Amino acid sequence: MAATLQMIFRNEEGRNVTISIADPRDDLEVSEVEAVMEAILQRNIFSTAGGDIAYLSKAQLVSRDVETLVEF
Asked: Splitting the chain (72 residues) into consecutive groups of 10 residues, what average pLDDT does each group show?
């Protein structure tokens, strides 16, 4: 199963900004994700077309299963 960690913020215009991390650790703690998101927000290291990242929104793990039907 492929998994992606999505850290979702809001920029100054109120639009969502998503930073995605492929294949996060299985033992990832909520507190670790919160700390990274806070650091991104406080250090103001990303700028978007809608301005700087201004607010935390949410973090989510997205997983998907891939079933190969035919392979050539």
From this structure: 93 96 94 97 92 96 91 93
Q: Taking a C-beta distance cutoff of 8 angstroms, is the pair 37, 44 a contact? A: no
How many other β-carbons are positioned within 10 Å of the β-carbon of residue 23?
9
Look up the domain containing 49 and give its range: 2-64
Instruction: Decide if 71 is inside a domain.
Output: no
CA distance 20 to 70: 29
**CA 45, CA 3: separation in Å to the nearest integer?**
25
Beta carbons of 23 and 13 less than 8 angstroms apart: no
Using a 10 angstrom Cβ sphere, with 0-12 exposed, 13-18 middle and 19 or more buried, the burial of residue 9 is buried
- Whether residue 69 is contained in a domain is answered as no
